[in-house]
């Protein structure tokens, strides 16, 4: 727009100069002399002072203006071409700048990408899967070292600043007088006059899974047990004890045979069907539980009868398989109910394997002692014996092998073999002790 205005002004000026030149030409006769110089003009004026001043300077000016006019008249003709050239130059310059800018941006982008790749490679190099590091450290240890660790730092640990008021107020509803139930984590029965049951919440850090650890029901607490199952929408019950060992481990809270029905307070429990074993020698049945006139609810009952109190299996594979199977079948964010006789030994060990696998993934240098203490903040006396403590380590190694995190190398095999021998030895002693106690009882009887 500015260039158009300048062009119009130049044309107007040229027209004006042309008019002046024409007028000057008409007023003055044509001369053949050329344009005089400055010196010639001054000589002319000085030699004839009386004479009338000539109009040579005017002619000179007119001719100068005329030549200027000719130059100006040529300008409009050349201007579009000049403008085109100017625009081309500006465009080229702009394109060059854009190219430079684009090139510099590409270079910066490439540099950033290289930096990111380098940083990522550095992180990957520095940040090895912490479970792998933990496994390497554990496989170097001896079972005796870990057993001592449990004895010195776990066995006597009691969660600080905890209360057990509900437990103390309901002594008749507790299977053991020395296995307390923590107030802050206990399961509260709703819509009941007495809201107490000896059961605790265990929340797994990934927030997708939670457990309820409870004692084996007493005859007087079976109704409360089924109340809790329906209230918390339980779909899987994992029972980790037989009904009897040396003494009662758990009151029978379900019928024995397919189609059989049993009444427990307001609840009617029906043995619907027996399913395929999820793991060898692990029972799986479906129970139908009805609360009065309400629609019946199906609950899966998983029963492990071969895990002996205070001990642990000599092979981790079956328990790992069972944990994975239950977790894969249980609906998301639905608690898994696990019990043994106390809900603190075998049941807590079962939950601890899952809990520890998540914690070790979160923190590289976390100690297993800290993990079990965290569990004991939720369930009193969780993981009661040193053998159960060792079993958690062996299960985690097996789990990490199955997940491809570690290899089954010689160090891991040696540790597992040492554990197997230790577990077999403990089991043999228990059986020998049981036989001895039975013989003693028979002698006393006779």
Automatic annotation (TrEMBL):
GO molecular function list: protein tyrosine phosphatase activity
Pfam families: Y_phosphatase (PF00102)
Residue span(s) of domain Tyrosine-protein phosphatase: 168-399
Signal peptide: 1-25
Keyword rRNA processing: no
Domain Tyrosine specific protein phosphatases: 317-390
Protein keywords: Signal
Keyword Mitochondrion: no
Biased segments, Basic residues type: 85-94
Protein name per UniProt: Protein-tyrosine-phosphatase
């Amino acid at each position: 727009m500015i260039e158009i205005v300048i062009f119009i002004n130049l044309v107007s000026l040229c027209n004006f100069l042309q008019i002046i030149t024409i007028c000057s030409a008409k007023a003055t006769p044509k001369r053949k002399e050329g344009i005089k110089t400055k010196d010639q003009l001054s000589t002319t004026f000085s030699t004839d002072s009386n004479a009338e001043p000539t109009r040579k300077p005017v002619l000179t000016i007119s001719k100068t203006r005329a030549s200027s006019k000719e130059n100006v008249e040529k300008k409009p003709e050349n201007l579009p071409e000049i403008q085109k050239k100017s625009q081309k130059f500006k465009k080229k310059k702009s394109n060059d700048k854009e190219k430079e800018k684009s090139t510099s941006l590409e270079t910066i982008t490439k540099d950033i990408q290289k930096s990111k790749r380098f940083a990522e490679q550095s992180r990957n190099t520095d940040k090895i899967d912490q479970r792998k590091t933990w496994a390497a450290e554990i496989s170097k240890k001896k079972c005796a070292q870990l057993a001592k660790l449990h004895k010195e730092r776990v066995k006597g640990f009691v969660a600080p600043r905890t209360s057990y008021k509900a437990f103390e107020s309901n002594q008749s509803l507790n299977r053991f007088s020395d296995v307390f139930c923590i107030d802050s984590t206990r399961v509260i029965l709703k819509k009941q006059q007495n809201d107490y049951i000896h059961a605790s919440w265990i929340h797994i850090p990934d927030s997708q899974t939670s457990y309820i650890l409870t004692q084996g029901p007493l005859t007087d607490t079976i109704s409360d047990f089924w109340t809790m199952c329906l209230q918390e929408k339980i779909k899987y019950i994992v029972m980790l004890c037989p009904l009897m060992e040396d003494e009662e481990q758990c009151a029978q809270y379900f019928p024995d045979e397919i189609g059989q029905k049993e009444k427990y307070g307001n609840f009617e429990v029906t043995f619907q069907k027996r399913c395929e074993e999820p793991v060898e020698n692990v029972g799986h049945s479906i129970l139908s539980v009805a609360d009065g006139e309400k629609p019946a609810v199906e609950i899966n009952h998983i029963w492990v009868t071969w895990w002996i109190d205070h001990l642990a299996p000599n092979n981790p594979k079956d328990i790992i398989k069972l944990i994975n199977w239950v977790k894969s079948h249980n609906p998301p964010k639905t608690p898994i109910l696990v019990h043994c006789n106390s809900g603190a030994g075998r049941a807590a060990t079962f939950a601890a394997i899952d809990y520890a696998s998540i914690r070790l993934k979160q923190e590289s240098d976390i100690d297993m002692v800290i993990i079990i203490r965290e569990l004991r903040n939720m369930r009193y006396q969780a993981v009661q014996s040193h053998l159960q403590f060792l079993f958690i380590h062996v299960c985690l190694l097996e789990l990490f092998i199955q997940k491809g995190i570690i290899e089954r190398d010689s160090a891991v095999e040696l540790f597992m073999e040492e554990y197997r021998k230790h577990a077999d030895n403990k089991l043999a002693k228990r059986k020998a002790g049981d036989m001895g106690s039975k013989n003693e009882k028979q002698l006393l009887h006779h």
